[in-house]
Design goal:
Keywords: ATP-binding, Kinase, Magnesium, Metal-binding, Nucleotide-binding, Pyruvate, Transferase. It comes from Solemya velesiana gill symbiont. Belongs to the PEP-utilizing enzyme family. Pfam families: PEP-utilizers, PEP-utilizers_C, PPDK_N. There is one protein chain. By secondary structure, the protein is an alpha/beta fold. It folds into five domains: about 240 residues, Dna Ligase, domain 1 (2-Layer Sandwich); about 90 residues, ATP-grasp fold, B domain (D-amino Acid Aminotransferase, Chain A, domain 1, 2-Layer Sandwich); about 130 residues, 3-Layer(bba) Sandwich (Glucose Oxidase, domain 1), CATH 3.50.30.10; about 300 residues, Phosphoenolpyruvate-binding domains (TIM Barrel); about 70 residues, no CATH class. It is built from 36 helices and 31 strands. An eight-stranded mixed beta sheet has the order 12-22-21-14-15-16-17-13. Strands 24-25-26-27-28-29-30-31 form an eight-stranded parallel β-barrel, surrounded by nine helices. It is elongated and about 110 Å long. The C terminus is likely disordered. Bound molecules: adenosine-5'-diphosphate and magnesium ion (2 copies). One magnesium ion binds next to loops.
Length: about 900
């Protein structure tokens, strides 16, 4: 039975779009040949052949493979007029690897194949060829020896260096024909010595061994590791092809050269040819760095005609591939050949610039311009980055918790950060871990470094929300707040020392490392403008302060999708009022505290409405359990004990020296203590703390996340929600009086039944009446509900009776869907679940489309069945991730809301989501 499978495709035959079968290099060699570019003749042995061979390597290549190879070699002989193994004008070939995914340097290529003592004479007999011929020969023996016979490079390099030394030259080019002849002889000996067999001289034997060696390199350790590291799965690339390509020589003298080029600058995106070349050299020399290559512009002087051809080649490549190309070329005695092309890898700056410029040049359309860039890549442009040319080595490493780099003086507590920040210093807040009461320190800092906690720790979440760099959980750092030092192995960071953190990589450096600022370029603006035109989803930002809102507007947010009012409560001058409100024994003293908070909240909301003038600002009423604003029980107990100790010693009038020291040591964090020499003041302080402790104990909850929070608070303490609602509506009324158009939205958290919404809505109605009467203007706003409780999703139809919009809070909804509490899950079992494939991803990072997503999809349908076109969005961290965004698009949400700096990423992702729908507009899930 004869094997009729097609294993081999001539460059004229292969389908340039079939990269799976022909590999990227082979497919492009076929395509370039077919569009008439000057590619040396050749053919491709398919990746399928590779897989067939690797199934059973001991059996060798299927017979039909070598038959087809022979037939194709004969046609190369016809095309070139040379003969393989011939002693006149021998045909030499390269045997090159190439899979569907580019894996630079992972697999092998052999050049000059077909040389032996006989064909060598054929080469030498050509005019002025002796040196070149021996050069090619010694290269073949070394490369073949290494790749096909497994001999180490050093075995050859040692001998070669010895020859150079003996002759007294530094560079290969300075060696004479005689020297290279000697090298070839010695190399032949090396092969025999290392393998016990002579170098194979039959060209077809060489060819077969080389093909098998390239196939085997697919399963070589280097290649296997690389695929694992970069998650290259068999559906992306399966097996390597072998490309057999007629050799052309860049090392035939000064009218020959070899080089690599980019059709545009891969770092800046500038529209100009970028590249390097070497005269009188063979391809691998440029990359190998044996000689220093020249910039491509020098070719214009050295070989003006060829340079012109190269420019034409560049133009044809771009106009054909419609993408920046990275190509290899060789000039043999004045004739230009193209040996490879592929899409160029570029940084984000270059991607954005080339998208905008190639569109303007008519090379690509808007869809292509948008789809060329993966949304996540924009991160490089939105945060300051460490200058990669700077060579510093990190002193410690933690988790990359919030991207971007920052430099500042280390400070060890939030108060100090605030003091220094106010004084105009750049600081990095260094803590073991952070708590909500550290928030003012975040505002004052350039970045945050913690030694404990994960990517979802308080520090990480808050820093991401603010767009500040954060390295979390750098466990090598031991922070000692008392000593105002941090210890890292043998090194010490003292307060005030300059440190640099890189939240993109997790690295921490002592001293200042050079940085590149974020570049929100004009081109990025243009590109994102197209994204907005294309997207159906609107992109809003989460912002808790007027400052965040202004920044979000700068990132192109179309509104604020989530303003967490409790973040506004945490500022140092406000927290005491909040505490006063919580400690209030009766409604009237609570009202006194609320009356103090009202103007503060009103002015915050007003500033945010102004920053977002013309766009919606969604204010979420108080959400967390109120004990979060109080110190912990443990902390209060400790403080009480210290105070009692102080009272005893002070009353006894025998102040021990360590007490004095204690008073001074704690003086700057507890400024009141050093005034407490008066026993009466100490007693008062003790009473206050005791009351607070009692309250904390009374408020204690077994499960705070499932406890007295959100709308439950609003219903039990209606005066709190009433104050917040009034602050929003008065802020809006004042804006309206100033002639501004504003769109406040009031959003209720943790809702699970319609009755809850009805109760809050009645407060809203009466406040609205009062405010409108007082200001004499009409206030337009929307009233809506968070959907973050499973029951709320199930009852979406009924909630839509009262709510005018929904916002999915996917952090809580994920917890509720899985019945996982986030911290426990992430610290205890989720990593193992992920490792064992029980769960593919961390659902708190990657939206669980199948579970939480299904609930969302159902709720969207039920809500809209009651209220046509009901506005619906998502807030929370999932809202900034491209995969979640695609899902939100597919289920028909109106908007996504994410942290300010992720807004540009989300805008592009929203456009991608719309484009992936296809022209028919069909939604597939
Ligand atoms: P890689 O994938 O590592 O770039 P290649 O197969 O492209 O490996 O080849 C390595 C080097 O040899 C490249 O510089 C290439 O241009 C050069 N080369 C490959 N085939 C030929 C050929 N037929 N003639 C001249 N140079 C070649
Ligand atoms: Mg190459
Ligand atoms: Mg929530």
């Amino acid at each position: 039975m004869s094997d009729t499978r097609k294993y081999v495709y001539a460059f004229e035959e292969g389908n340039g779009s079939d990269k799976m079968l022909l590999g990227g290099k082979g497919a492009n060699l076929c395509e370039m040949t077919q569009i008439g570019l000057n590619v040396p003749p050749g053919f491709v042995i398919t990746t399928e052949t590779c897989l067939t061979y690797l199934d059973n390597p001991d059996q060798g290549l299927p017979a039909a493979v070598m038959d087809q190879v022979r037939a194709n070699m004969q046609s190369l002989e016809e095309k070139t007029g040379k003969s393989f193994g011939g002693s006149d004008d021998p045909l030499l070939v390269s045997v090159r690897s190439g899979s569907a995914m580019s894996m630079p340097g992972m697999m092998d290529t052999i050049l000059n194949l077909g040389l032996n003592s006989n064909t060598l004479q054929g080469l030498i007999s050509q005019p002025n060829n002796e040196r070149f011929a021996y050069d090619a020969y010694r290269r073949l023996i070394q490369l073949f020896g290494k790749v096909a016979l497994g001999i180490s490079d050093e075995a050859f390099d040692e001998e070669f260096e010895a020859i150079k030394e003996r002759v007294g030259v530094k560079e290969d080019v300075a060696l004479s024909a005689r020297d290279l002849r000697e090298a070839s002889d010695i190399f032949l000996d090396v092969v025999e010595r290392e393998t016990g067999k002579p170098f194979p001289s039959d060209p077809y034997e060489q060819l077969e061994i080389a093909i098998k060696a390239v196939f085997n390199s697919w399963m070589g350790k280097r290649a296997v590791d690389y695929r694992r590291e970069f998650n290259i799965t068999p559906d992306m690339a399966n097996g390597t092809a072998v490309n057999i390509c007629t050799m052309v020589f860049g090392n035939l003298g000064d009218d020959s050269a070899t080089g690599v080029g980019f059709t545009r600058y891969p770092d800046t995106g500038e529209n100009g040819m970028f590249g390097e070349y070497l005269t009188n050299a063979q391809g691998e020399d440029v990359v190998a760095g044996i000689r220093t290559p020249k910039p491509i512009d020098a070719l214009a002087d050295e070989m003006p005609g060829q340079y012109q051809e190269l420019v034409e080649l560049r133009n044809r490549l771009e106009s054909h591939y419609k993408e920046v190309q990275d190509f290899e070329f060789t000039i043999e005695r004045g004739r230009l050949y193209c040996l490879q092309t592929r899409n160029g890898k570029m940084n984000a700056t270059a991607l954005v610039r080339t998208s905008v410029e190639m569109l303007r040049e008519g090379l690509i359309d808007k869809t292509q311009a948008l789809l060329r860039i993966q949304p996540e890549m924009l991160e490089q442009l939105l945060f300051p980055q460490l200058d990669r040319s700077a060579t510093a080595s990190p002193m410690a490493r933690g988790l990359p918790a919030s991207p971007g780099a920052a430099v500042g003086h280390a400070v060890f507590d939030a108060d100090r950060a605030e003091q220094e920040g106010r004084a105009g210093q750049k600081v990095i807040l260094v803590r073991e871990e952070t708590k909500p009461e550290d928030i003012h320190g975040f505002f004052a800092s350039q970045g945050i470094l913690t030694s404990r906690g994960g990517k979802t720790s308080h520090a990480a979440v808050v820093a991401r929300g603010m767009g500040k760099p954060c390295v979390a959980g750098a466990e090598g750092i031991h922070v000692d707040v008392q000593m105002r030092k941090a210890f890292v192995g043998d090194a010490t960071i003292s307060e005030g020392d300059l440190i640099t953190i890189d939240g993109t990589t997790g690295d921490v450096y002592l001293g200042e490392v050079a940085m590149k600022e974020a570049e929100f370029s004009n081109e990025l603006e243009i590109l994102l403008g197209w994204a907005d035109e294309t997207a159906r989803l609107k992109v809003m930002a989460n912002a808790d302060t007027p400052d965040d809102a202004t920044k979000a507007a700068g990132f192109g947010a179309q509104g604020i999708g989530l303003c967490r009012t409790e973040r506004m409560f945490n500022a140092v001058e406000r927290l005491p009022i909040v505490v006063e409100m919580i400690l209030a024994e009766d409604a009237s003293s609570r009202q006194t505290a609320l009356d103090k908070l009202l103007p503060i909240q009103r002015s915050d909301f007003k500033a945010m409405l102004k920053a977002m003038a013309g766009r919606p600002v969604t204010v979420r009423l108080l959400d967390p359990p109120i004990h979060e604003f109080l110190p912990s029980e443990h902390q209060l107990e400790e403080e009480l004990e210290q105070l009692r100790h102080l009272r005893d010693t002070v009353l006894g009038m025998n102040i021990l020296s360590d007490t004095v020291e204690f008073m001074y040591r704690t003086a700057d964090t507890h400024p009141s203590i050093d005034k407490m020499a008066d026993p009466q003041l100490v007693d008062e302080a003790i009473d206050k703390k005791a009351v607070m402790l009692k309250k904390v104990r009374a408020l204690h909850e077994v499960n705070p996340m499932l406890g007295h929070r959100g709308v439950r608070l609003g219903i039990t303490f209606p005066e709190i929600y009433s104050m917040q609602i009034r602050a929003v509506l008065e802020a809006a009324a004042e804006c309206v009086k100033e002639g501004l158009e504003v769109f406040p939205e009031i959003m209720v958290p943790q809702v699970c039944t319609k009755q809850e919404l009805v109760r809050v809505k009645s407060i809203v109605d009466s406040v609205q009446q009062a405010v409108e009467a007082h200001y004499g203007v009409e206030v337009n706003f929307k009233f809506g509900s968070m959907l973050e409780v499973v029951r709320a999703c199930m009852r979406a139809e009924s909630l839509a009776d009262v709510a005018e919009f929904f916002s999915f809070g996917t952090n809580d909804l994920t917890q509720a869907t899985f019945s996982f509490s986030r911290e426990d899950a992430e610290n205890k079992f989720l990593p193992m679940y992920n490792e064992n494939g029980i769960l593919q991803d961390n659902p708190f990072e990657v939206l669980d489309i199948k579970g939480a997503g299904k609930l969302m999809e159902l709720a969207v349908g039920w809500g809209r069945s009651k209220r046509d076109n009901m506005k619906m969005g998502i807030c929370g961290e999932h809202g900034g991730h491209p995969d979640s965004i695609r899902f939100c698009h597919q289920i028909g949400l109106t908007y996504v809301s994410c942290s300010g700096p992720r807004v540009p990423i989300a805008r592009l992702a929203a456009a991608h989501a719309a484009l992936s729908e296809g022209p028919g507009g069909t939604q597939s899930l």
